[in-house]
Design brief:
The protein is an all-alpha fold. It contains 2 helices and no strands. The protein is elongated. It comes from Alkalicoccobacillus murimartini.
């Protein structure tokens, strides 16, 4: 049951990043979605959503690998 909730938690930033990519793609082709007033605002919001989702997934993988000892010693936590 715990793994199911972890999957649900990871799906939210994946969909956020995917929606950000969709907004950037639509802005690139000058397709304005309804809540946005201009193409540049839509692209900026898409970029922000993409980076939020990407950073969350990257941080999750980094934290998990650091906990399991699978990273370089320079990225491990310093004791003391």
């Amino acid at each position: 049951m715990g793994r199911f909730f972890a999957l649900l938690i990871l799906l939210l930033p994946i969909f956020t990043a995917g929606f950000g990519i969709k907004l950037m793609r639509d802005a690139f082709f000058h397709i304005i979605q309804s809540p946005f007033s201009s193409v540049s605002v839509q692209f900026l919001i898409g970029l922000i959503l993409f980076f939020i989702g990407f950073a969350f997934i990257g941080g999750f993988i980094f934290y998990r690998d650091r906990k399991n000892g699978k990273i370089s010693p320079r990225f491990s936590k310093r004791e003391g």
